[in-house]
# Entry
Amino acid sequence: MCGIVGYVGKREAAPILIDGLYELEYRGYDSVGIAVSNGKELKIIKKTGRVKEIEAARSERGNIGIGHTRWATHGDVTVENAHPHTYKNIALVHNGIVENARALKEELVSNGEIFYSDTDSEVIAHLIADGYRGDLLDAVIGACGKLIGSYALAVYCSDEPDALICARMRSPLIVGNAKDGLVVASDLSAVAEEGATLYSLDDGEFARLEGDEVTVCNAGKNAVVKEAMQFDLEEGKTKLDGYRHFMRKEIDEIPEILHHSMFNFEKNSCYSDFYRVLCQTEYIQIVACGTAYHSGLCAKVAIEKLCRVRVEVVVASEYRYSNPIVPKGTLLIAISQSGETADTLAAVRLAKRKGAYVAAVVNVKYSSLTRLADAVLYTHAGKEVAVAATKSFNAQLAVLYSIVGTLAAIEKKRAPTLRGLAQKTAKTISVSEEVRGWTPYFVGAKSAYFIGRGADMCAALEGSLKLKEISYLPSEGYAAGELKHGTLALIEPGTPVVAIITRRNTAEKTMNAVHEAYSRGARIFLVTSFAEYCEMDEVCASVLIPRCLPEFSPILSVVPLQMLAYYVALARGNDPDKPRNLAKSVTVE
# Structure
């Protein structure tokens, strides 16, 4: 991983590749490279760092090429490990992980072959070159048959200088027609402006891009007819529109996103079938990773409290290896912004084998998760450029809370209303600017802690994750009652502690933890719906947010926490849109 773009056509390839790679920057990466051929010579340009490092390569001449942004998995961040990788007459870019790379490499080395990188990807180039007998498609199919793991490939061969061969297995890849040529990419955004007709490859499919035609086949070289993707050109655009960073822009987009997500919930094409399943549901499992996992925890609190239906939330990477118990009639809700999260996809495949009905809460059309799920509930968050999730989290909550409302009505409980949440979120964004004044207390801190109870604890977990993701300040989120069971040992004078209080019947219990932390020197910061707590002597600073149904409160309370992470990151000199070592779409284990 992390990003692929390729072009075959009548125009100069290098500018198209570089522009496409700029569009893929949001996915996160640490090195970049392109390969461009003029039919006689293949020129490779690779650098560590950002796409701007290869800007001078725009002048390279050639009508065919491949490009890549790499997020290191195998091997350090070096020019040698950057893509494209070459061997003999082969050049390729690869997303994914080859799980049997070590064994394959050992065999190739024993045959006298020399490797120039520490990556698993270079192994594929060797396999294709060794298997080449005058037909690149045959060589790619043969090499892929030896691979265990995941891959999206775009392959060039100097003996067939007018074509690219592409392959997919558990890693997204799009091919299609462009202006005066053909394109391949791992993400719609890289080619949305270029593509007139685009197709998403399925697992085990291969494509040849040559002349003015894209042909798709399976491993048996049988032709596959593809349905063109339906997309709006706006889906691929990434503009700051006057904002300094995408993260800040995306926080401001939350109210509109909430409206779209809730308004379109019952308009999902699968809604009637999903409703039928909900009517029979007595047990729900939720699988997700990272921020999406936190949205699942929020859903559990609301469903169990308001609908009295049992919910289990499991980190997807643990679910897939736990031999989970999946009773008959289980509804499994899989949550993923990208729809390509490898662990979540593996969990879904396992749950389906065990008989679960799978509903996907996902933002990206044509993603792998949409293909696997029995029902797809789109979040309508639009493209999220910043690596740290903000509006996509709130959009997930909007869809999940819509499920809560529907399920409550089915269970003949009092149906909670989501009315007014978008407007209250807009007000919350406005007052959340106050957290900018908190940053001096966080910039030099050794660590920070977020506490809450019930739904507030879920918000605390997400707030902590945001802070550590982009400010690099060690941070933890806790149930407020757990603070005294060990964590108080870490509290020292000046340690920032953020408490979230939005539920009246647990407010005083959370304040007990606040008193305990304050008495040991902590600086207390408060996000609350109750004005009286803002005036307490222990509180260093506070944000007063609107009240809503307590079970739905994370959709509001997380906003000042997102804003806090943003401003602390800026104060610490970090780029909040592109945190180090992280990728937007985690397509590998």
Observations:
- The chain has a mean pLDDT of 92.
- The chain is about 35% helix and 25% strand.
